[in-house]
Amino acid sequence: MSDIIHLLPDSVANQIAAGEVVQRPASAVKEIIENAIDSGADKVQLLVKDAGKSLVQIIDNGCGMSITDARMCFERHATSKIRKAEDLFAIRTMGFRGEAMASIAAVAQVELKTRRYEDELGTCICIEGSEVISQEPVSAMPGTSISIKNLFYNIPARRNFLKSNSVEMRHIIDEFQRVALANPEVFFTFHHDGNEVFHLPKGSLKQRIIHLFGNTYNQKLVPVEEDTTIINLKGYVGKPEFAKKTRGEQFFFVNNRFIKDPYLNHAVLTAFEEVLPAESYPLYVLFIDIDPSKIDINVHPTKTEIKYQDERAIYAIIRSAVKRALGKYNISPTLDFDQETGFSRMITQQAPEDIVQPQISFNPDFNPFAKSQEKENPFLRNSEPAHKAVSKNWGSLYDIIKAPEVEEATLNLPGNKIIEVDSKAVQKMGERQIFQLHNRLIISQIRSGFMMIDQQAAHERILYERFLQQLENRQGASQQSLFPQTVTLNPGDFELVRDLLGDIQALGFQIREFGKNTLIIEGIPADIGSNISEIEMLEHLIEGFKNNQSALKLNKRDNLARTLARNTAIKAGVNLSCDEMNLMVDELFACEMPNASLSGRPIIITFTLEELLQKFEK
Description:
The protein has 15 helices and 25 strands. It is an alpha+beta fold. It folds into three domains: 10-203, Histidine kinase-like ATPase, C-terminal domain (Heat Shock Protein 90); 206-329, Ribosomal Protein S5, domain 2; 383-618, Ribosomal Protein S8, Chain: A, domain 1 (2-Layer Sandwich), CATH 3.30.1370.100. The strands form six sheets. It has an eight-stranded mixed β-sheet. It has a five-stranded mixed β-sheet with strand order 9-10-13-11-12. Strand 11 (250-254) and strand 12 (257-259) form a beta hairpin. Helix 1 packs across helix 4 (100-106), helix 8 (262-271) packs parallel to helix 9 (311-329) and helix 10 packs across helix 14 (578-589).
């Protein structure tokens, strides 16, 4: 029997390695930019076309490569950072395995131009599918330019698994932001299809955060700094009141390398546990500087996971440092761009002559035993229900006997117990008796007893099915805004809105692009009230969509309908009129699934008269 084990060809081995290193265009962006940082560049340009599917080009002004190095960098496990095994435990550079260039060249058409500062001519190498097409001297600027064209051109199955341009673009932005945050001393630019997405000049870490995420972050940041014999910790956390419903803006860096670590993330969250709103996630950008011999970064193909020798001590240091920073700096924001805290304006002691004695006014003719007069309620409801429900035959359900009117304010029961009854709580419309309990539940009498309805869950179900229908028919009614609102988003959220724009407009939003990362909101859906501004409504829609996308993996339209329904539904604690409660009940039972909430919990609970009598032992 002949031997059956043989060595794989280099081209096949490189494609297998590419499956770990290069999953999408964003993976190539990460690897090449990190190589540019390792080369000592202080200026890096990223150019992307067709969300990286057609072209990813990175230009840097680093040290460049010689003719031999330019050719050797495409070989597997060829690296300038490792000489012996012990070097694996003293790594402070981004790349070290020597797999990135070989993996990218195996699945794309790559053109490399590079020149060292001391050389007169540079080198140009063209590689397709691990095969060198040409290598020749060229005139080039000092540094390196790498063009990655037609990613996965020779693996159609992998290319078909790529998402839409907006999704791939968001992944590229995520990788770019991580490298840019870790290197605020480097000048970065990012262009997509000829449009500038980021222009990040050199500066401090705080300035880099503000340039990446927006000027509003100037008042959200709290500095964190702690020096110990185990680690040195520095960075920023967000103030609790600015926490979001998604985990998006959370960054850990170990020796300037971005990592994902749920254990350390838990340390930050426990520091916020007494001041953070429920189901909210704080912003943090934290840098850990640690002896490379105390960690192992060679545990994951993309180098985003790290093992530590003393995890518990690091956990305790991070938790205490963040907690102390929140207690020390969580004060009123400052307008100074470079100022870290708000100590510039201290409370000064007033002079005794400046103190004004408070004045108290009262009515001397007030008689507490006089009969109160009815007063008109000065508060008017903001909006009436916009839609009439499709009513059904309620005859069989509400075939009941009229209850007597409530005349007394209290009911005297045997045993000298007095139960107060609010006569306004019991409201009737025709044969249906209905009232609201604690501004939270709707109670309605039926033939066999009564039913209790969760008003918030019921309204969410009604709006959800209505929005789904509007997305299907593309006929959402819109309410024109009197004054159009302008909102500026971070590039990631802006790309998300561009991807969802058609469906958002189908719901009734009137939104159009207005320059770089800016939108104009000219109208909102007519079905929702005006409790929040148009800008807050859009921001809540974006946050909820991202949260559902990561947690529930919903399709786009279902996610939009669910998010908008939850953000705009009537909340617990809102007082409803009799007409509004009856309309909500009619609309709820006109739904396809009136019994289940969006989270799968019951909306309606029924109680029979027999169950009630058993409580009284009858």
